[in-house]
Design goal:
The chain contains 5 helices and 9 strands, in the order H-E-E-H-E-H-E-E-E-H-E-E-E-H. The chain is α/β, with parallel strands linked by helices. Strands 1-2-3-4-5-6-7 form a 7-stranded parallel beta sheet. A two-stranded antiparallel sheet has the order 8-9.
Length: 197
């Protein structure tokens, strides 16, 4: 989320988390001076970071009132543990391609609340590209995961067809936007309703 009015719309839907990107290179970066009221939501808020200093993350979490962090970079388990000790909940992102080795998730089992599997690209997230979802069958870890990467309104049946016991949610982003950071309420509402049927 990037715009307060848009966030107020989206939170009326049956969504579990609202994400806010703190990565300056992202088209969805909230900026140094976020819109007034952007974080004033009762929904769980997720701060999204890429290789950010742990103390910077802790300060922002305290000042802006979010309990969840989504880590998109090369953050190691030690950094995750440090954040967790401060009361933050961790979503650790892994960038997946056909050669992805799911054993790389194992060191994070004790420090992450969720994993998020996204498409491996040159940039960090928001690419609109999918990876081969069949590779998820190789994931045998204990941590539940979110599916991300290029999910669009046309994918509802494909997502419903994934039969993995640890799939716990989907990350809806670029496929449901009118512009970066501005979500399309109607597209989201339709997708969510169809997904939950």
């Amino acid at each position: 989320m990037k715009y307060t009015e848009n966030r107020q719309q989206v939170e009326k839907l049956d969504v579990d988390f609202l994400g806010f990107i703190f990565y300056p290179s992202s088209k969805r970066y909230i900026g140094l001076t976020p819109e007034t009221g952007l974080f004033q939501s009762e929904k769980p808020k997720v701060g999204v970071f890429v290789d950010e200093n742990a103390f910077e993350i802790m300060g922002l979490a305290k000042n802006l009132g979010f309990e969840w962090v989504q880590l998109h970079g090369k953050e190691n388990p030690k950094t995750c543990q440090m954040l967790k000790r401060q009361g933050l909940k961790i979503i650790k992102v892994f960038n997946v391609d056909d050669n992805f080795d799911f054993s790389t998730t194992e060191p994070y089992e004790k420090v992450a609340n969720f994993f998020l599997f996204d498409t491996k690209t040159k940039s960090h997230g928001g690419s609109g590209e999918k990876f081969n979802w069949q590779i998820l069958e190789k994931y045998e870890g204990h941590i539940p995961f979110f599916l991300s990467g290029g999910i669009g309104p046309e994918d509802v049946e494909s997502v419903k067809a994934i039969n993995h016991p640890k799939l716990t949610g989907v990350d809806l982003n670029s496929g449901f936007e009118d512009e970066p950071g501005l979500k399309n309420f109607e597209k989201l509402e339709k997708f969510i309703n169809e997904l939950k049927k």
